[in-house]
Write a structure and sequence with these properties.
alpha+beta, 476 residues, 15 strands, eight-stranded mixed beta sheet
Amino acid sequence: MSSLNYRTAREMLADLVAKRISARELLEAHVARNDTLTAKLNAVVATDFTRARRDAQAIDDARAKSEPLGALAGIPMTIKDGTDVENMPATSGNPALADRPKDCADADVVKSVRREGAVVWGKTNVPLMLGDFQSYNDIYGTTNNPYDPTRVPGGSSGGAAAALASGITPLEIGSDIGGSLRHPANFCGVLALKPSWGAVSLRGQVPPMPGKYVDLDLGVTGPMARNAGDLRLLWNVLRGSAGSPSRDIKGAKVAVWDEEPGFPLGSDVREAVKRAADALANAGAVVERAKLPIGGDELMETYYELLIAVLGATFPKELYDSFAAQRTQDLEATRDGTDSFGAALYRLRATANYRDVLAAMTKRQAMKDRLAAFYASGCDIILSPISPVPAFPHDHSQPQMARTLDMDGTKIPYMTMLNWIALATALHGPALAVPAGRTKTGLPVGVQLIGPSEDRLFDYAHVLEERLGGFNPPAI
């Protein structure tokens, strides 16, 4: 592998502008990297080299004539396979979508990066209908973690995170409704921004099913990169503006949220949060552990009600019915009142009463108001975990919600992966995942920065990157 593959996107752009490398050469370097690693990682699952090579050559020709070019002119990119790309329609891991016509339109986010000259050449793997914390499906198989192929890269943007970490792509676009940007970034040692809900168009995303676009609750699409500068570059392209200038974090107030009843947290992740908190304090921020004005039980009950309503509206009926029936059967067999996700699903399925959803939206607004007041009272950002554990071993057992995770030798429910990511998702706020070192066994582990707006999060991400080392490539 050439060191070129691990240069920042901004360094690649500088090389392109200076004509030290051509867009065609840069594209081929990343294609070659994927060829080397595809058997080990299976991150990229579809390609369109004909269009990509034509686009790269057009960029080179325009640059040779000193024509004006966009902010990403000549940068090769892959896109998560939950997003439509012309000639590479999204399958979202669903065999029913494997034979979609190739003449789909680019999703809005793909149009945004193409307008700025990005060269889109491949699609990255996901779980079935983007509905898991792993990335495997019956069409394309399983994607592995570059730091340990026996473990998951996360989901649903798992192929995207694996491709970034392994030098296959310098930039990616993922999506998030249950941590699908943040968990993979965490597990693969890269960065991701879950934007505020509604900040970027979701047109061209699957789910919902192709041709049935609707502006649904909770889901967002956002940028992924190996460093904060590149992440900000791609974010500015996706939102169509440069945003606010960077500011010092000295004197800023950071609330550490890593204790919540019912939210498991393993020692490796807790140590990462402490490293991040210490780094911000050493940079001059005022860092204090805080109790949020929102209870964990209240948050999760509301989030589950809203999430399940979205699943019911976006999943193919047969998939949702199967999912709901299995969870209902599990609950009836165990009468386990601790399974709040399953209980919420059971209630909605049993009553078919979506007045519960309206009630959840009302509770959500009250929580949003309390969180806004919390920020206004002097808190600039919240520092918290992302996942309760680092990347875990592959587990394709069914039903999904019967799975467990190992946390320091204790089994915890699989669906507790939703706990720490729920605050930003349920309350429509932004969250930025950033690396915070590695575990004793060498696995990446990160933290998330949650705040009232996207721009300020980058200031803290830059500090953590500088003080904790940021992205470190896997020995692959």
